[in-house]
UniProtKB/TrEMBL annotation:
It comes from the Bacteria. Belongs to the transglycosylase MltG family. GO terms for cellular component: plasma membrane. PANTHER family: ENDOLYTIC MUREIN TRANSGLYCOSYLASE. This is Endolytic murein transglycosylase. GO terms for biological process: cell wall organization; peptidoglycan biosynthetic process.
Length: 278
């Protein structure tokens, strides 16, 4: 009988001790729903029975793939990002203000929690990396600035049929040579792509009234380079601006099937227009 009573007392003491330990653990937590949370309740039991607690699982941050093609404007990029992720087009444009031409076209992986400014900054840093020291040195040797090159590259990007998949840039280099030739003799660049930038259209040709638009970006009305890039060029267009082909051509046109036809004189150019664009 005495042994039985000892067992009862021992069990009661054990139960009291367990309740005391439980109350101590509960008092160390500010939340009252620990046992409603599986991970928290498991940690409580680990502490209660002296077990090594398991670390919380690591949940990777959500990412979004962003693909920026060569030749997109800042407006194009802002619209795309607003459709692709949580960013507002207005925030993208604000972050990219004054940086047209320098948002490098590429495929990016960005966190869904990233701000518009951080996404734009990623593109700007990529531009800085792609424009290597060698390219920058060659630009300086030519007596040009990076801004000159990027403006010219943006024109080439919009005018030349560049195949980035095959890295075909022959037409881009010839058109680059034509544009630099025109600048040397003070001839207008007369690029319809600059009118499209003003009008926000994608027309290959424009009306006589469009040619008279009073904008410094109108290269029919004003000679020299426009005041800024008209798009964000890719690396082949940038290289074509730095290393243009040596050519005697001063004119070119692009057929509906994207074939480029060149001419040395204006008369020859008019003949080509009649032949290929009539």
């Amino acid at each position: 009988m005495a042994k039985f009573l000892k067992k009862i007392v021992f069990l009661l003491l054990a139960v009291i001790l367990l309740f005391w330990l439980y109350s101590k653990i509960i008092n160390t937590h500010s939340s009252g729903d620990d046992f409603a949370n599986p991970s928290r309740s498991e940690r409580l039991l680990d502490r209660l029975f002296g077990r090594e607690p398991k670390p919380d699982p690591i949940i990777p941050a959500a990412e979004i793939t962003v693909r920026i093609p060569e030749g997109w404007t800042n407006d194009d990029i802002a619209t795309y990002l607003a459709q692709t992720g949580p960013w507002l087009a207005a925030d993208v444009l604000e972050a990219a203000k004054g940086k047209e031409g320098y948002l490098f076209p590429d495929t990016y992986r960005v966190y869904a929690s990233s701000t518009a400014a951080s996404v734009v900054d990623k593109m700007l840093k990529n531009f800085d990396a792609k424009l290597t020291d060698e390219l920058r040195a060659d630009i300086t040797k030519q007596g040009k600035t990076v801004e000159d090159i990027i403006i010219m590259a943006s024109l080439i990007e919009k005018e030349a049929p560049i195949n980035y998949n095959k890295e075909e840039d022959e037409d881009a280099r010839i058109i680059g040579g034509i544009f630099w030739n025109r600048l040397k003799i003070g001839q207008g660049l007369q690029s319809d792509a600059t009118l499209s930038y003003i009008l926000k259209d994608k027309e290959d040709q424009h009306s006589g009234a469009d040619l008279q638009i009073d904008s410094l970006y109108n290269t029919y009305k004003y000679r020299g380079l426009p005041p800024g890039p008209i798009a964000n060029p890719g690396l082949l267009a940038i290289r074509a601006a730095i290393y243009p082909a040596t050519t005697k051509y001063y004119y070119f046109l692009t057929t509906p099937d994207r074939q480029v036809i060149y001419a040395k004189t204006y008369e020859e150019h008019l003949q080509n227009k009649y032949k290929y664009l009539k």
